[in-house]
Amino acid sequence: MSKPVKVHSVAEGPVDGPVVVFSGSLGSDHRMWEPQVKPLVDKGFRVIRYDTRGHGASPVPAGPYALADLGGDVLALLDEHGLERAHFVGLSLGGMTGMWLGVNAPDRIESLTVCCTSAKLGPPEMWADRARTVRESGTAAVAEAGAGRWVTAGYAAAHPGRARFLREMIASVPAEGYAASCQAIERMDLVGDLPRIVARTLVVAGAEDPATPVEHAEVIAGGIPDARLEVVEGAAHLGNFEQPERFTALILEHLEVAR
């Protein structure tokens, strides 16, 4: 594990409310969680969103990164906010980070929600190739394809402005940060560690997710003791953004039980 970086974060909601930390997808920043903020704040939760290292306004240390690095940054974020424990919600790379925390820092995680993610996402060559492409040509070279995985074609056609917002989000990520994060996914294998997670866990999958299909969620839910699996129809990879009402309802329901 490298030295933690101080990631950029945004905290909203009552200062004395239960804290929920939101962690995003490869190629995103904290804005991807915008649909979830007001509903949670209105229910009394304090919402902390952050930009993964190498993304958004966070520092961009040289790669490669490992999941342990990304998890260490979250632990430093909790310390920065004076938090012993927090609920954690992660999507894709954020979900991988959440599972790492569930295994390696169980005393810091109040509950765990992992969305549209995987415990092992091969083939490794794909991630090495994508990292190479981004280092050579920048994140704009993968923005169209990335946004095409994030939302269904029907959603993109019906909401061209939002689809453009997502493409621009990916294209704004520093090339080294994106590529170094690809390398974390390339080497990741959490499958054997899943039974060690003790946090109450909700696993959410998008029925139309081409990046982490439902089978990946089934592996996670089958490996984590007593995990609950929910599949959301009409959702591709950025399911919280495409189907915000359903994802938010599932997250809130899980948080209220664990509260």
TrEMBL record:
Query: Sorted alphabetically, which Pfam families does this protein's record hold?
Result: Abhydrolase_1
InterPro entries associated with the record:
AB_hydrolase, AB_hydrolase_1, AB_hydrolase_fold, PcaD/CatD
The signal peptide stretch is none
Residue span, AB hydrolase-1 domain: 18-135
Q: Which GO terms describe its biological process?
A: beta-ketoadipate pathway
GO function term, MF aspect, one:
3-oxoadipate enol-lactonase activity
User: Which NCBIfam families would you find in this protein's record?
Assistant: protocat_pcaD
Q: What is this protein called?
A: 3-oxoadipate enol-lactonase
